[in-house]
Specification:
Elements lengths: L2 H19 L9 E2 L10 E2 L4 E4 L15 E6 L2 H8 L3 H9 L9 E8 L17 E11 L2 E10 L11 E7 L5 E5 L16 E2 L4 E5 L11 E4 L14 H19 L9 E7 L9 E10 L2 E10 L14 E7 L5 E5 L3 E2 L1
Parallel strand pairs: 1-17, 7-9, 15-17, 15-18
Antiparallel strand pairs: 2-14, 3-16, 4-5, 5-8, 6-7, 6-10, 8-11, 12-13, 13-16, 14-15
């Protein structure tokens, strides 16, 4: 493997790790969870610059189980436990329905994490070669039989890392059994039924990356240039340096400053967790320095009822620039506010 190819592979892996770590506390930037308040009569710290930080991911970048899984979900609680607090809205949006009425409906779900991720001609990120599809649902023996199979990924289709198919069907109280049919060849039709009464799906959707856990609210402190890259990333020093430089430029753009002087300043970051639309934002309201350390007060601001926020999951965050401080830093969340 040539040095250029090796560097590219390292950069790709490092980029995923860096994205997953966005919003985490970097090395040397000790952020203490909210605890006893530092003395509020301490000195107010001037915020030198601030800006939104749109780089905290909505979902965890951890790998999902490398196996095939199936679920029959009959309640919102089951769905949330499996796919996160905002799963009901996300799934309904994907199914193109106003909501899932679990009193009358249920979800049938199939996920396949056993496929390798392979490259394709023409470049682009690696993908699983097949999607999954639920091809037939039958009512038989007081229950449901759900037949699913793999189908070739379309050339123009999305990249698949953990394909998951979901079908919305009328609610059934009986046992649900999943059966895998042979993979569908190009242009192949649906398999024949097993003699039961066919149940028509009300809606269906494909999730290319499966259902991952949502990233919780995070706080972080960056005191040094070296802290800009997660120390867990192992790569040649010239690669790490390029990543530090890119991250420093990203912070400078967010803060609208020419550059960050880590000898004199440091960056404080706060994220508010996954939110149901793009109208939410995070605001650092006050920074105080006292004998016991620095306290960063922040809050989540909700959009006004009449706003035209897009119904898409986001993870709002804000970064601020303050004078460098070597003591402990606490973050305290205040009451949410509506604009």
């Amino acid at each position: 493997m040539t040095r250029a190819v090796l560097t590219g592979v390292v950069l790709l892996g490092a980029w995923f790790l860096l994205t997953a770590a966005a919003g985490e506390v970097p090395r040397g930037g000790k952020a203490v969870p909210a605890g006893p308040r530092a003395r509020e009569e301490g000195k107010e710290v001037k915020v030198l610059a601030r800006g939104p930080w749109p780089h905290v991911p909505v979902y965890q970048q951890t790998a999902l189980p490398r196996k095939q899984q199936q679920w029959a979900l009959r309640s919102a609680e089951e769905l949330i436990a499996l796919a996160g607090p905002h799963a009901a809205e996300v799934v309904a949006r994907a199914l193109k329905v106003e909501r899932v009425d679990f009193k009358k409906q249920m979800l049938l779900v199939v996920a396949d994490g056993t496929q390798p991720l392979v490259g394709f001609s023409g470049g682009g990120p690696p993908s699983a070669p097949n999607r999954v599809e639920i091809v037939r649902i039958e009512a038989r023996d007081k229950g449901l039989i759900v037949t699913w199979r793999r189908a070739p990924r379309a050339k123009e289709g999305p990249v698949l890392t953990h394909p998951l198919a979901v079908a919305l069907v009328p609610r059934s109280k009986g046992e649900v059994r999943f059966e895998q049919a042979p993979a569908r060849p190009e242009g192949g039709g649906a398999p024949k039924g097993a003699g039961g009464k066919e149940v028509k799906a009300l809606a269906g959707a494909l999730f290319p990356d499966g259902w991952k856990a949502e990233v919780p609210p995070r706080q972080w402190v960056i005191r040094n240039y070296a802290d800009l890259v997660d120390p867990r990333i192992k790569a040649p020093e010239e690669v790490i340096e390029r990543m530090r430089k890119a991250q420093a430029e990203r912070y400078a753009r967010a803060l609208k400053v020419p550059a960050i002087d880590f000898e004199a300043h440091m960056v404080l970051g706060v994220s508010g967790g996954a939110q149901k639309n793009d109208g939410y934002r995070v605001e650092v309201t006050r920074v105080v320095k006292a004998d016991k350390g620095m306290v960063v007060h922040w809050r989540l601001r909700a959009p006004p009822p009449a706003s035209k926020a897009r119904p898409v999951l986001t993870h709002p965050a804000e970064v601020v620039l303050v004078e460098r401080f070597t003591g402990p830093v606490q973050f305290e969340r205040g009451p949410a506010r509506k604009d």
